[in-house]
Amino acid sequence: MSPSPLRVRGVCPHDCPDTCAFLTEVEDGRAVRLLADPAHPVTGGWLCAKVRPYLQHVYHPDRLTHPLRRAGPKGSGQWRRITWDEAIAEIATRWRDILARYGGEAILPYSYSGTLGLVQMSVASARLWNRLGASRLIRSICGEAAAMAVNATLGVRRSPPYRDVLNSRLVILWGHNPVSTAPHFMPWLLRARRNGCTVVVIDPRRTRTARLADLHLAPRPATDGALALG
Ligand code: SF4
To answer: Hey, whose CA ends up nearest to atom 7 of ligand 1?
Structure first.
């Protein structure tokens, strides 16, 4: 009988608030399987579609592991491998030229977190762009609208622990579709519902969450304010 693979506990490396726990099975020094860690109390047993095939990202033969320079017209797929020193030197030369000719604000950093982690994303990155005098941009393209809405509604960007929903008798999900956007909340909401909690969804769209609700109110887009005023 072959020995069982080594199981290594870890968490998703993406800068995503859920921080899903996973187990990696390793054989002969190579990761062979990635599983959601069923023992985790919140994220247990579920990874999103982006991360489930993570080992294919890691070992895919087309994974980019070195700099390439375009060697033909855009879109032609012609590339030439260059060294890291060449790539960094070319970027630095171009940036110096932009700084000298137009000033730092002509450079707009447009990236966000990925798997950078807080130190690289929020500390190292900010210092670099500040030193260059680059233009400033709220670089999150996914979370800022939600952050503004939560701040405007609650005054702070906080939420109670998911399990607290078990104490609720009525939950109103207004413009929120947790089946798609907060999947780790759903098992708790469904448990609350089984315990007698009523779930109301307010959303112009018949979302997957709306289909599960006890009551779905679908105001015309932009009439939420009138509904809120009763
Ligand atoms: S939801 Fe996906 S990206 Fe976010 S922590 Fe979980 S596995 Fe990672």
So the answer is: 47
